[in-house]
Amino acid sequence: MNQTITIENFKCFAEKKRIDLGGITVCAGMNSVGKSSLIQSFLLVRQIFDAAGFYRDTAVRDYEIRLNSVYGLQLGDSQRIKSSMDKDDIFIYIDDIRFRLCSIPDKPMQLTIENMYSLQELEERQGIFSKRFYYLNAERQGPRKYQDITGSDDLGCGIHGENTFHLLREREIDRIEEGRMFPFDKGKRVNTVGKQVEYWMNYIIPGVELNVKELNDLGISQLEVRQQVFDTGFMSPCNFGFGISYVLPIVLSGLLAEKQGMLIIENPEAHLHPAGQSRIGYFLAMMAKAGVQIILETHSEHVINGIRIAALQLEMETEDICINYFSIDHEKGEHRVERIELNERMDLLKWPDGFLDQEEQDLRRLRELRRKN
User: Fold this and answer.
1) What is the pLDDT of residues 283-306, one digit of tens each?
2) Distances, alpha carbon 260 to alpha carbons 113, 129, 133, 306, in Å
3) Whole-prediction pTM
4) Which helix H or strand E contains 314, and what residues bound it?
């Protein structure tokens, strides 16, 4: 598991910034304070690892890293993502592994790096260097009648969830280990991927059933959904809103991600009711307990509370949960990343201004307005 990431001269991180990681790492904070920059740093490092695998057994050590399109990155010109005019290079450290990314004068949409590490040295660190790495972008596919069969499962569900139907069909009879199996109903103990996806989806969005089939002649996978409370057959996901389509790739990725591998998710709470947000937090904490290193960016206190509930029930160690609060110190003009520690009761030991306090502020404002009336 990766313990820290350190970023220097990349976007908002002008000076060297060390950020702690845990079994499950939560990135919280206002908009445009560095959460996405952290995730993009991981995606740049993953490209380096991919290149190391491509050039295995060769003498090639100089790689060109693309700033756009790969892993959904849209960083634009290399000069615009540097924080300081006084520094030419971007540095990213994973623990004590150091990468120096340099501009290419005639290729502004790329960076170059001389990789000093063998593929074996990187693989031993696991996490972002695991053989299978899954990433789900905030902009996932909404309801679709079908998805194209791409023929490749290397990226799991795909960064937008575009390969979810096919992957579910391909892996539905695979076995799931005990630590990831649905724990709340002794009657739901079938340990196949297909059944466990069904159990967890029904927990997060109650009453849904899924059915996947493939039309190989057309090269498409098709998902159908049914709600148990209604006397209808299976129908298109287009009849059920965005919640099912957005959360299904998260559940499938969590169940399939390899131990000591990494799963990065942006906004797992999107299109979910608060109860569903809490439950996806519980699910992700349980996947972390089973050995998947999870990095998630969220604006939802319900997701965080779901993680804390799971941590207590599953007897997770406090150091396994890393909640990082991103903010801006306007007086000093710098971005800050502050770890919110927890005690053995999963109480938050810090509560900085702006950290999940909007409800309290709104209620205070309501009381003030009512007194005036």
Assistant:
1) 999 999 999 999 999 999 999 999
2) 26, 9, 10, 22
3) 0.93
4) none
